[in-house]
Amino acid sequence: MFQNPELLKLVMGVCLMLLSWVLFSIWRERLSKVKEEERMNFLMFNVVGGSWLVAVFALCGGFYFLLQPIFT
After folding, report:
1. For residue 56, what are the contacts with CB-CB under 8 A and spacing of at least 6?
2. pTM of the model
3. What angle do CA 30, 37, 20 make, to 5 degrees?
4. 8-state DSSP, 48
5. b/e 44-59 (16+ beta carbons within 10 angstroms → b)
6. What is the pLDDT of residues 14-35, one digit of tens each?
7. How far apart are CA 4 and CA 8, in angstroms?
């Protein structure tokens, strides 16, 4: 199945996009439970609070792996 590099990139792109969706969903749920005055501390120093950054990188990587085989 993974002998074809284009197929591997497509699968990796889909997996990264799903991962970013899951991470962002967890982050949004936890952020809504935090009080307004504690949000900055949550975003900067909490592992779950910083997962929005990992979600952004996973989403960008997913788009790259999904669109790169189309344009080459």
Report:
1. 20
2. 0.67
3. 30
4. T
5. eeeeebebbeebeebb
6. 888 888 888 888 888 887 888 8
7. 6
